[in-house]
Amino acid sequence: MKIFTGTSNRPLAQAICDSISMPLGACTVDAFPDGETFVKIDENVRGEDVFVVQSTSPPTNHNLMEMFIMIDALRRSSAKRITAVLPFYGYARQDRKDQPRVPITAKLVANLIVAAGANRVLTMDLHAQQIQGFFDIPVDHLYAAPVMYDYLRQKNLTDLVVVSPDVGGIKMAHAYSQVLEAGLAIVAKRRKSATEVESMAVIGEIRGKNVLLVDDLTETAGTLTSAATLLKRKGAKKIFACVSHAILNQTGIDRLRKSKIDELITTDSVLRPALDGVPITTLSVAALLGEAIKRIHSNSSVTSLFEFKGGRTS
């Protein structure tokens, strides 16, 4: 077995290797003067079970292309099996035709991963679970919830209510509320544009309670911050937010600095610089991904990674 990584999240790939006591595979990933990506695998992979770790976070198109080229290089080097490890799967929000004459880019990306030569995919907290069905190869879908739960349990939060910031996230919020033995509420929202959201009403009782907002992804933080403002107005005490993938741009960072959120809890699925003035806690999913890689290699069950405290995250 060998593990390689592109340039999108090298610290996570190194942490995965450290967690399972393996060296990170040697490869050269560089760019020609005109911007084209060059990849060379610097060790023998003939007949090996190979894993390529690459988050498709911004710059999304560059990181995707880098992964396709790495997979192609490994396939042409006679690797026995290639597993694309995507801690964050980009383009996942474009998973359906919600208006005329638009693509289903999440399906296109799935086709390109298979066409490049991947035999298997390992990913985490997809924006839409049906994306697993876009692949005709095996997909192992992990959840960051067990890592989040361990951290939240240490905080000993009382009077807790888990809140979904929109109707689409109710399933995830329900799973958290069951495991944390907390209440459940929903924020109804209306999206004005790709970057602007208006939170309109809270369904559930949150007055005098500590609140945990849960979501799979935030970029501009519009949904989270507008929900937090509404919840504070409705009488919530402390507000925490749990987000698997925090791909924060400048707009999102500015909003979080001014927001009512006391702590944003996220993972290292995407590489992010240190953020001043943002109350952010980053938990590592390296051990979780490392264990999944070990089990895939040994053809063991990955299902037990979804189970914790007698419940399931799915």
Summarize the structure.
Helices cover 30% and strands 27% of the residues.
What does this structure look like?
This protein is of the alpha/beta class and 314 residues long. The protein folds into 2 domains: 169 residues, Rossmann fold (3-Layer(aba) Sandwich), CATH 3.40.50; 139 residues, 3-Layer(aba) Sandwich (Rossmann fold), CATH 3.40.50.2020. The chain is built from 8 helices and 16 strands. A 7-stranded mixed β-sheet has the order 10-9-8-11-12-13-14, sandwiched between helices. The longest helix has 17 residues. The mean pLDDT is 90.
For the structure shown, list the relevant keywords:
single chain, 314 residues, alpha/beta, Rossmann fold, 2 domains, 5-stranded parallel sheet, 16 strands, 27% strand, globular
